[in-house]
Write a structure and sequence with these properties.
477 residues, 20 helices, binds beta-D-glucopyranose
Length: 477
């Protein structure tokens, strides 16, 4: 546990130890990060239960079902690219305020939608907010959390995503019978407004204020966050690290040959996290359970809530407990084996499910599907979920970290978009079994690739991690 802070992003000397302590301002930072994560998760999860009612009211074609489901990720792709710029120009606090306002507005548009076009516009707005927050919130956390807490702040973000998905499933289950999709989608305005309220009095990142030349405001911010330390010592440390960053890399340098290896690892992890099928399950689990014989919307929603949502939360806790003890590679490899094997079994189960899905209750194959999906989500939540974000945030050298992380995040959303956009089309074209086997095949390829290419970063300082990319010049690049 104690060395996790070393292995998370450390914006220079700002992470110097300060002897601990807690302040109201710091609590607000954590609350904001948790709310941002929960919103992200809620918007990821809610659509699975809303689809049934949406289809009834708008007579959605299969293509439109995919558009309504997946365009939130398209918005997030744009939002994550814009989020870095927004956070640099407006500040971290205002970027999060803007993201929360977008969430609230998008949720209102979605829930009041009179037609598919308006609904899709709402999905895009919500997605843009999700993407912007997905870059701004971890950045805000990384810059404001004390070094010893930084790892926990960022892992709490992934936990909050899982909790958000779970809450969305609970709300979906509560309104499944009525098919009240307007309530399901509209509810996300509530945490969005809470985030707005939390961000209004929240403190701006001193690091950003200094970068903008606002030294007095930065000093006041340091005093609010950590009243027990000497603000001038802290500001000097931050200034020194900002000077180091002065030669900050251009976008082009992110792709420079020197950083090819960490970039390949970061992008590879971002892609494998998605092409192994997580969001096909998160988004379409109700439909998968329906096909597996859970015939009522309520039975489907309950299976989704507990087998996917609750298990996702609980298994994320396993990763938080073990990521710094047994390391990233064992978790990734074990997770990929579990995911691949369970997807293979789901594919087998669907062979016997075939067209006979209109029965009165889940068949044996349906129960096998349920159990296999529990194993799948557990395996994802203790491995690819949190570990991918951890490694992406620790492998890049300081001068390219921000942009490289933004590129990896955008690629992750791009892959999420492709999977959720084409999942149903793929099911139509090659059938459920082959689709799940394709995901399983990607797990196998991903496992081999992780085994060969992803180094263990547990317990290594950021400098040691950098040295891994070029053993000839250890420690310094
Ligand atoms: C992924 C999301 C996914 C979520 C599920 C995150 O790490 O990036 O795409 O929906 O985990 O918990």
């Amino acid at each position: 546990m104690e060395n996790r802070a070393d292995t998370f992003p450390q914006p220079g000397a700002e992470g110097a130890p300060d002897g601990g302590g807690w302040s109201t301002a710091l609590t607000l930072v954590l609350v904001a990060v948790l709310l941002a994560g929960a919103l992200f998760g809620y918007d990821q999860g809610v659509i699975s239960g809303a689809l049934e009612g949406l289809q009834r009211d708008f007579k959605l074609s299969p293509i439109l079902v995919e558009v309504v489901t997946s365009w939130v990720t398209l918005g997030a792709l744009a939002g994550s690219l814009a989020g870095g710029e927004l956070a640099d120009r407006l500040g971290r606090r205002k970027a999060l305020l803007a993201a929360a306002a977008l969430f609230a507005a998008g949720a209102a548009v979605e829930s009041l939608a009179t037609g598919v076009a308006v609904l899709v516009a709402g999905r895009l707005i919500v997605g843009f907010g999700v993407g912007a927050a997905a870059v701004a919130a971890p950045l805000y956390a990384a810059e404001l959390a004390p070094a010893a807490q930084r790892g926990r702040f960022i892992s709490s973000y992934q936990l909050a995503i899982a909790i958000g998905i779970f809450l969305s499933y609970l709300i979906d289950a509560a309104f499944a019978q009525a098919g009240a999709w307007r309530i399901m989608l509209g509810v996300s305005a509530v945490p969005a407004v809470l985030l707005l309220l939390a961000m209004l009095p929240a403190v701006e990142s001193p690091r950003w204020l200094l970068r903008m030349g606002r030294r007095d405001a930065a000093r006041a911010a340091v005093i609010r966050v950590r009243p027990w330390i000497d603000p001038d010592v802290r500001l000097k440390a931050v200034e020194a690290s900002l000077r180091e960053e002065a030669g900050k890399a251009s976008w082009g340098e992110v792709f420079a040959p020197a950083w090819r290896r960490p970039l390949a690892v970061g992008l590879g992890l971002a892609i494998f996290q998605q092409v192994t099928g997580i969001n096909a399950i998160i988004y379409y689990s109700d439909r998968i359970f329906a096909a597996a014989g859970f015939s009522t919307p309520l039975a489907q929603a309950q299976a989704t809530t507990w087998a996917i949502g609750a298990v996702n939360v609980l298994a994320t806790l396993i990763a938080i407990a073990f990521i710094d003890r047994i390391g990233r590679r064992p978790l990734l490899l074990a997770g990929l084996v579990g995911m691949g094997a369970s997807l293979f079994v789901v594919g087998l189960a669907f062979l016997s499910i075939g067209g006979a899905s209109a029965g009165s209750g889940p068949t044996t194959a349906g129960i096998v599907t349920l159990v296999a999906l529990v194993i799948f989500i557990t395996s994802f939540a203790f491995s690819l979920g949190p570990v991918v974000w951890t490694v992406i945030n620790e492998i890049f050298p300081g001068q390219v970290r921000g942009r490289a992380v933004a590129v990896a995040t955008a690629v992750n959303w791009g892959a999420a978009f492709l999977v959720s956009e084409f999942f149903l089309t793929l099911v139509d074209a090659i059938g459920e079994s082959a689709t799940f086997w394709l995901f399983a095949f990607f797990c196998a390829i991903g496992g081999l690739w992780v085994y060969r290419k992803v180094p263990e970063t547990k317990g290594r300082s950021l400098e040691q991690i950098q040295a891994l990319w070029n053993p000839a010049t250890p420690g310094d690049r």
